[in-house]
Amino acid sequence: MGNGGKLRILTGSIPANVAAAETGTLLSEHTTASPFAPAASGGVLSPTLPANVNAGNTGTAGYWRLTTSGGTAVLQGTVGTSGADLNINTLSIVAGGPVQVNSWAWTEGGA
Length: 111
Hints:
The protein is mainly β. The protein has one domain. The protein is built from no helices and 11 strands. The relative contact order is 0.28.
């Protein structure tokens, strides 16, 4: 992952895989922590939560994507207010309003 990665929260449906083109409107972009995360345990990666940001656009959060500082997508997942890979304060995001990551865990396929 490296330092300075970006957690991007977008509208719409999650693309078929991380290699597929990003879709939807970018609602918020958070800079990931350094280090990004402690070692995965049992196939679950729990990144250090990024700082809150103010949304750049208005819309309903549909999925998240993690990119390197250079913009290469490396992970993506579900977003919700509970029970998702990435849980945030609200799915109804308003431009200029706060976007807070409450929890974030990604499970490797098959784990």
